[in-house]
Amino acid sequence: MKPFQFILILLFVFPASIRVWGQESEAAQAYRNQDYKKSIELYEQLVTQGIRENKESAQLYFNLGNAYFRDNKTGKAILNYERALLLDPGDGDIRHNLRFARNRTVDRINTAGDLFITNWFHAVRNLYNSNAWANIGIMFFILFLITVGVFLFIRILWIRKSAFYTGIVLFVLMIMTNIFAFSQKSERIHRNYAIVMTGAARVNASPDENSNALFELHEGTKVKVRSSDANWYEIEIANGSVGWTSKQNVEII
Fold first, then answer.
1. Cα-Cα end-to-end distance for the chain
2. Does CATH number 3.30.750.200 belong to domain 193-252?
């Protein structure tokens, strides 16, 4: 690269980066000064910019969630913690703050029992994000190729046997890590969970204001979006109950 080309890159790229870093620093300073509304405004701008540039940041969502929590907006805080967790499911700080924010919610819904294998799958999958699992899968694939090479070209019997069985284990691990990566990627793309954002959200039997009210949900409750119809979402809560609520009552994670 010619020197003048490098200088042009510095002139055009660095100022944009400095503006972002400066704005993030300003948002953090506003948070430290307990000016949470200004911190929220600045972090929201950064999050919007990240979405526009296809560069969502778990850290920004986490910081925004903290600002909303301090501003006593529990629903918005939980929403942004959940978005941060979706991008970085292995982060202990995000999980801790999310649990703390959930303690402020009104609804206490008993979770429907899941199979052990389902709980185990999600627990292991959420140790890392999809990119990390993909990298681990690549590592297992390379090791698998090495064991194949050893099996094919080494003539010592015990080494060939070891390579064969090790290769089987590595192949299984490679498949599992790719499943974890694909599952997380799919969850991030489809985003079929939402957070109740209103103080009281009525859930009806059908997508009609005049239909029977089944139950009521409150700010901060997490729901699964099963389908949509015009201005309505069909939702499912943790205990398996299903109903319809207005799209205005919830926000997609």
1. 43
2. no
